[in-house]
Known about the structure:
2 copies of one chain form a homodimer.
Chain A: H1 7-14, H2 18-29, H3 33-42, E1 50-55, H4 62-75, E2 80-86, H5 104-108, E3 112-118, H6 128-140, E4 144-148, H7 155-162, E5 165-170, H8 176-186, E6 191-194, H9 202-214, E7 225-227, H10 236-251, H11 255-280, H12 283-299, H13 303-323
Parallel strand pairs in A: 1-4, 1-5, 2-3, 2-4, 5-6, 6-7
Helix pairs in contact in A: 1-2, 2-6, 4-10, 12-13
Amino acid sequence: MSKMVSTELLNEFLSGSRRALAKLISAVENDGTQARAVLDELYGKIGQAYRLGITGPPGAGKSTLVDQLAKTIRASGKTVGIIAVDPTSPFTGGALLGDRVRMHDIATDPGVFIRSMATRGSLGGLSQKAQDAADVLDVFGKDFIIFETVGVGQSELDIVEAADTVIVVLVPESGDSVQAMKAGLMEIADIFVLNKADRDGASRAVQELEAILHLRPAAPWNPPVVSTVAPAGKGLDAVWKKIQQHREFLLQDGRLAAKRKQRLEKKIHELVSRRLKQEFWDEEAQQLLDASLENFQNQKLSPYRIVEELMNKFMASLQRKMEN
Amino acid sequence: MSKMVSTELLNEFLSGSRRALAKLISAVENDGTQARAVLDELYGKIGQAYRLGITGPPGAGKSTLVDQLAKTIRASGKTVGIIAVDPTSPFTGGALLGDRVRMHDIATDPGVFIRSMATRGSLGGLSQKAQDAADVLDVFGKDFIIFETVGVGQSELDIVEAADTVIVVLVPESGDSVQAMKAGLMEIADIFVLNKADRDGASRAVQELEAILHLRPAAPWNPPVVSTVAPAGKGLDAVWKKIQQHREFLLQDGRLAAKRKQRLEKKIHELVSRRLKQEFWDEEAQQLLDASLENFQNQKLSPYRIVEELMNKFMASLQRKMEN
């Protein structure tokens, strides 16, 4: 079995090698036992980076906004890791949206590390692997980590869990489809950004948004609306300011700590589910399932009864394992 | 423990009582042990109904199309069950889109049974419960079952599994957001319906769609594009014809049987995951998790190590259970 993560690599990583960083993220993505051991070792050091989630409907100009935000963060002397999650087809594995072109400044800045990731079958989802990659960036010493996702599907829920501050990027666009799609996104934003604010209908869109927000019951944190024109870099300082305000807010009354505890709990639930599946679906279970499915054609067995049989077999085989 | 499903109810159901049908679906939705036992009893009878999935971006006029399709099916002498899955907020549980108004003919036709369901936390998802409800409608004797979902999120994948024929409803609408959202939907359609075909840009939209489809490699089934104006009932006969053609196609070479076998396999995997979770997360496991999370603040334990501990505890408690 090839060693994916050598002590040498780990040391290079810990002394700040970008090359080693990239390799370690790959090792973690491939989810080998080695990588898991590595994360175990590094875990004591996780928790310094602040995590931002940027999401919104396709076409809102998120990539440019993310790049500009990274620039703003760099100007304040901090370092940035960007994890761009691209929706891929669960059927062909190919990219669903066109490749983004990143701003030159960002692409060449050694203080910025960018990683693109496919969603791998869960349309729009932010996988545990994206969070694991963020953990690696965290240990590496990145001050800020930005998750960039397309706001369709499961990603709304995932990003709320993965990020400390969630920014929803909208644009002045008409049409029922967009309105309804926004509906889920409305609930998760800590900060709203109205991008392409130089377009027709921009100020009206801001007003409508603020009116909707005004209807909500007052809360400890009321998401602000910031207008931007990302390619021109307009409004980015205001966004940056709001991020810092939200971070301050979370640091009060242990809110940030509570968020991160919840994140860890969810992660553990996910990992347990994965382990249980691995333990359960051995060769014997698969054969039992295949046999039941064959019978299905003829006898129309209830899936519930099939599951009972499988559970019994699982308990029995566990018992045998433990006796040996 | 109250009996949710009495023999009396079951008999009423099997003799065609709508009231009993509604009650049984509710029992199944609430997922009691009783309901499971009932499904077990009924399972031998499942498999007669043909399942249609209707999905598409919000604002495409799906509800009206579904109602008109139900009318068309009824005119051919068949009965229909409609399961309308409404996206609800995972945060508030409230509806994300406005309530639909169903066509009067359909709402009052005894040959049509309509059930609205919330997605309950998986944004846009078609839960196992929706499929269980479909199974109940199947046993009840419905010839056709229509799943109506909003095409955002996980629902694309779910509907492919739940339905025999998937119809994607689009409208002539411009804008990048909609285009990108369609991207995932493009792959799952067995039939495309271009609704609101009386709008500007309709014929061009059809041409563009057909051009995109033409670029695909030739396949055993090439999804046709049908134009409709749902409120006026235009194009529905053509849609109905294409559904029948697709059904004929699936009946060749055991394709439909293969689909349904896959559906059952997926269902079993889901049920196993649920059962394993139930077995695993007992009081002891929860306490162990809570204790680990407390320590997290202080010691930054790796989630992987916490999972190892939990797995060991699980194995140990299973062993104790079996020795008793």
